[in-house]
Amino acid sequence: MIENFESIPSPCFVLEEELLDINLQILDLVQKEAGVDIICALKGYAMWSTFPRIGQTLSGAAASSLHEARLIYEEMGCEAHTYAPVFYENEMDEVLHYSSHITFNSLSQYRRFIDRVKAFKKPVSVGLRINPEYSEVGTDLYNPAMPGSRLGITRDQLADTLPANVDGLHFHVLCENDSFVLERTLERVEASFGPLIRQCQWFNMGGGHHITRKDYDVKHLVGLLQAFKKRYPNLKRLILEPGEAIGWQTGYLVSTVQDIVHNKTTRIAMLDVSFSAHMPDCLEMPYKPRILNATDAREGKHVYRMGGTTCLAGDYMGMGDYRFEKELKIGDKVIFDDMIHYTMVKTTFFNGVRHPSIGILRKDGSFELLRTFGYEDYKGKLS
Ligand SMILES: Cc1ncc(COP(=O)(O)O)c(C=O)c1O
Question: In the chain, what is the straight-line distance between the N-terminal and C-terminal CA atoms, in Å?
Fold first, then answer.
């Protein structure tokens, strides 16, 4: 764990190699004990400089677009499991080139593209995303099974046999869930889709498995997966595609106080990062990240609101202030914890503000700055 952030440039995402390795070991244990394939969902974790390491341990990666599929192909050196809510005519050949599996979100997408997949110069296994109409995810923003959801095919749309040339089924209705939620979800999935799962060569249980969280019951998961495999001996591959669990608790967003502003009794630390541009989930979900050496504000001294660097009125941590051990001064580092999964992939260049660099803390304790961003990056996404 990093003890001294002083030498790290700000703002900067910093991944600790050792913490990533711990997550990979846990995931590998599940792969080996349960006999399943765990693949890394790029939508949640796409720090590609670590892909060689991930590719050595996990069984590949899941893409949700042509670009993610290409990144997997180029940087992990394997073909992607690609699912997207829609595929495009003019991208299909490239998607197939980079993919070993392609999963369609609807029967109309399947009908539109199946002949092209089958006529492609190499085999690509075809799947359908199903919508079990059951999810324990409370927030609609993250609930793919909410009423009227556009994601996945409901049971009533499918006959008793799989459509021609379909090899697998895929569901994704979990988000930061434990294995007991998975157990209840599987009961519902199997009650509706069991006979169809029996016709599959592979089955993909999507993401949202919080396997690397401290209190996750890995043993229970392994038992559950083993029992599932016994019930469906037809399955050649059982796949899980978590994103968050890969980068869970593996690093930080380092920021620096640039100003302290006062508004009546409120003291606001103005930072060189933005909640809107660099930590959008804090506003969307919303959630309050932990700051190292700070606690949730209670009455007393050294209480500050964290303010972002864009001019959006809502660019501040609205879920509550923080209490620090001592008074904050301009130049002090403020370190947001657990900022690697999703945060890094969701950043924007809103307001043209400086984009955090990306660095890695190697196992030997050395810090390597991997990427900095400048004016050309901002300009390059506009015209
Ligand atoms: C289809 C699909 N697979 C995998 C994931 C990864 O989920 P998580 O990062 O929560 O594990 C998501 C997340 O939205 C998803 O939509």
Answer: 42
Cβ(23)–Cβ(323) below 8 Å: no
User: Using CA positions, which residue lies closest to atom 16 of ligand 1?
Assistant: 172
Residues enclosing ligand 1, CB less than 6 A? 41, 43-44, 62, 83, 172, 175, 206-208, 241-245
| Residue 246: both structure tokens together | 């890969």
Q: How far is the CA of 219 from the centre of ligand 1 (A)?
A: 22
The secondary structure element, H or E, covering residue 113 is helix 107-119
Q: How does DSSP classify residue 153?
A: B
Residue pLDDT, tens place only, 65-87: 999 999 999 999 999 999 999 99
Q: What are the DSSP calls for 72-90, one per residue?
A: IIIII-S-EEEEES---GG
For residue range 333-357, what is the model confidence (pLDDT) as tens digits?
A: 999 999 999 999 999 999 999 999 9
Query: Contact at 8 Å (CB) between 130 and 170?
Result: yes
| Domains of the chain, each with CATH number or no CATH | 35-246 (3.20.20.10), 251-339+347-380 (2.40.37.10)
Asked whether the beta carbons of 333 and 295 are under 8 A apart, the reply is no
Q: How far apart are CA 82 and CA 117, in angstroms?
A: 13
| Torsion of Cα atoms, 81 then 85 then 88 then 94, to 10° | -10
